[in-house]
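Appendix C reproduces, verbatim, an entry submitted by the partner laboratory led by Prof. M.T., so that reviewers can inspect both the input and the predicted structure.
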Amino acid sequence: MVDESIYEHMDDFTLYEVFHETGNVLAGSLVAAERQARQRGDRKEAQRYFREQAQMWRDREETDNRNRSRQIELILSWNSRRTAVEATLE
């Protein structure tokens, strides 16, 4: 687990890059989970992962590159969600 305060000490550019890439990593996990659900024939779960990914993209696009607190909030949330999603992958 990363100490949350590390994000507070990053310069704006670095924090935004971490924010952006954390979204990419979560998106990859959600795509993997969506594909896995489709392979099992679970369309509802696959659609849920697809919608979650779309919401993540919206959240990322709507977050201003100067809004450090929102970026940190989403980084922490997305890291937590990625861990949970990856735990379900076979």
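The CA atoms of residues 15 and 43 lie 36 Å apart. Additional entries are available on request from the coordinating office.
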